[in-house]
Design a protein that fits this description.
This protein is an alpha/beta fold. The protein folds into 4 domains: 70 residues, no CATH class; 226 residues, no CATH class; 183 residues, no CATH class; 80 residues, no CATH class. Helix content is 58%, strand content 8%. The protein has 27 helices and 8 strands. Helix 5 runs antiparallel to helix 6. 29% of the residues are buried.
Length: 619
């Protein structure tokens, strides 16, 4: 308490003295003053307290072990050795329990990352015990090893808790990076899980101060009722308010182009633009979705309809399918089955057409053997030529689709792939008009098979189909065409022929910057000898934020852009496995935790997680 003069009484500090060990059989252990005889600890290391305890409870030790005698010293060493042994045993037990807990976290992470059920932890432990019994049979410390294996905590409830804890740890790592990042972009998509709940998946692409980028799952928002644009926006708005997401760092949002996302009035993007909390941001329609829509412009419906009908007539009935497989086996074919096609799986069309064309002779022979009515198209030379052409062009579109897929794909890389394909289409159209079929392997093979009958090929019709596809590419990718000059400049900013006025205007418009400031910084940058010498590598992180604030913002924003919703689509594939018909009662919280651990590049801090909890071995 404070006195009248305002001074505070100082609390006295007491220290343990080493001579008390021999005099009163006390020692310091883990910051506590402990009696070596009865292991009693006293709160304050005062000589009076120590002496009082010794005289009251252990006074006979002065008679049995006289002070300063060799007998007393030997007894002191013996008691200290006993205490040390007890502490070592306790520490060993604690260390073993901690190791078992950390191992439990590691195994649980493997289970969840591989999208397995929580209850499979018990199966893993049983398999581990059986394997250890054989593997360590000749080891002298087998009993100790088996004891450690059996101490693993892998029950269903334990794995569930481990999953929740690790997901929380990974989430904290993500939010630390979000707090430190310079800007970010989002991609959104929506799909329905096994329990008919609409799940809105949101990914974030962060750009840190060193210009490195990270792509991570931000959240999964369950939509229990409607999944309209305003519903998705409200759910996302609630998420922002709950987590304090720094939305002012937002650069762009990429969606799948669905009406709920891009509707002009009530779409998700429109609602975001109407909200004052959101900055001016760019929005893009997924490149991969647009590429798939371009592929649908091919006017070859009669080819797909007939091929699909024939394949289904064989695959739809069990007997037909068995007979056809037996027929292929007798014919010693490379393939043993026909494939099926569905519009939902875009890439299946190219594989379906390729397999169908390769098995056309066996299909005709099978229909003759079984006495079924043959399809006249299988003997129509023009139809077979159309099938070969469609197969070739679809395979090219599939190759582009695969090239656009993948994690850590920058917008610059994706625009380059699309532009390369457009140039390829122009080149192929010209070659088709010259009747040069070197790039059309299936068409060329069909022409060789038909011989003179195929000489009347109408190459202009096929060239027209290529031109229609090319025109659709030009129409659909206009948004990214506007971004192309900026991406080209950022890839190499030291070109002498760059149109500074037009370039600075586009950069300023895209990223809400001052056009004059951008223009000055471009001129300074192109004259910067030190930066020019490093232009062969990654040098944007070398730009001074004071000297080049606008250009640096342009570089970080461009790095942050998402070109597609591939990550959302791939996450939905994980979701179908995790929340299957056998786990349809899984909660939304556990679904998000499992998805986060399955797709995240962050690694849980197992040791820290084990330290933060009371470690116990399994029975």
């Amino acid at each position: 308490m404070s006195g009248e003069g305002g001074t505070t009484k100082k609390q006295k500090t007491y220290h343990f003295h080493s001579e008390w060990e021999e005099e009163f059989f006390f020692t310091m252990s883990f910051s506590k003053c402990v009696c070596l005889i009865c292991k009693f600890s006293i709160a304050t290391s005062k000589k009076g307290n120590v002496e009082r305890h010794f005289r009251t409870h252990h006074g006979k030790y002065d008679t049995d072990f006289p002070l300063k005698s060799e007998l007393r010293k030997r007894k002191l060493r013996e008691l200290k050795s006993q205490l040390s042994g007890q502490q070592s045993l306790f520490t060993q037990h604690t260390s073993k329990a901690k190791a078992a807990t950390e191992a439990s976290f590691r195994v649980s992470h493997v289970i969840v990352k591989n999208k397995r059920s929580f209850q499979e932890g018990e199966m893993v432990k049983e398999a581990f015990v059986e394997a250890a019994d054989s593997l360590f049979g000749e080891f002298k410390n087998k009993a100790e090893i088996m004891s450690s294996v059996k101490a693993l905590q892998l029950s269903r409830h334990t794995v569930t808790r481990r999953c929740e804890t690790m997901a929380e740890d990974v989430t904290q790592q993500l939010w630390k990076d979000i707090k430190d990042c310079e800007c970010f972009s989002l991609q959104l998509d929506e799909s329905t899980d096994a329990s008919d709940t609409a799940q809105v998946c949101i990914y974030i692409r962060l750009v840190l101060s060193d210009m490195s980028a990270k792509e991570e799952l931000l959240t999964v928002l369950p939509m229990k009722e409607h999944a309209r644009g305003q519903d998705i926006f409200q759910a996302f708005k609630n998420f922002i308010e709950k987590t304090q997401l720094p939305v002012y760092k937002l650069v762009s949002i990429t969606t799948d182009g669905a009406p709920a996302m891009v509707g002009r009035v009530n779409g998700f993007i429109a609602k975001c633009r109407q909200d004052d909390a959101f900055p001016d941001f760019l929005n893009y329609h997924c490149l991969i979705h647009q590429q798939a829509l371009c592929a649908k412009m091919l006017n070859m419906k009669e080819i797909m309809d007939v091929a699909t009908k024939i394949a289904c007539s064989i695959r739809a009935r069990a007997l037909q399918r068995r007979l056809f497989r037996a027929h292929l086996e007798r014919a010693d074919c490379e393939h043993s089955e026909l494939l099926l096609h569905t519009d939902v799986r875009w890439l299946s069309r190219g594989k379906f057409l390729q397999r169908f064309r390769e098995l056309c002779p066996e299909i005709k022979e099978f229909f003759r053997e079984t006495g079924q009515a043959e399809y006249t198209q299988l003997n129509d030379g023009q139809w077979l030529l159309d099938l070969a052409f469609l197969t070739d062009l679809t395979n090219m579109l599939n190759d582009l689709n695969l090239e656009l897929q993948g994690k850590d794909k920058t917008v610059t890389n994706m625009i380059s792939s699309v532009n390369a394909f457009k140039r390829k289409l122009k080149h192929l159209s010209a070659k088709m008009q010259r009747r040069d079929f070197a790039n059309f392997h299936n068409l060329k093979s069909q022409l060789e098979t038909q011989g003179e009958a195929g000489a009347q090929l109408d190459s202009a019709r096929y060239s027209q189909q290529i031109d229609i596809c090319l025109a659709e590419f030009d129409r659909r990718f206009q948004d990214f065409t506007l971004l192309e000059p900026v991406a080209e400049f950022m890839a190499y900013p030291f070109r002498d022929d760059a149109d500074i006025d037009a370039l600075s205007s586009k950069i300023a418009t895209l990223f809400q910057l001052n056009s004059c400031g951008v223009e000055d910084e471009i001129l300074n940058l192109q004259s910067d000898i030190e930066l020019k010498s490093r232009a062969h590598g990654q040098f944007w992180n070398l730009l001074s934020e004071i000297k080049y604030p606008n250009i640096r913002k342009c570089a970080t924003s461009l790095t942050a852009l998402f070109g597609s919703t591939y990550l959302c689509e791939s996450t939905f594939s994980h979701m179908k496995i995790i929340k299957s018909q056998y786990r349809s009662t899984m909660t939304d919280e556990h679904l998000e935790a499992c998805l986060r651990l399955a797709v995240s590049s962050y690694r849980p801090d197992y040791a820290s997680l084990a330290d933060s909890m009371q470690c116990k071995s399994s029975n």
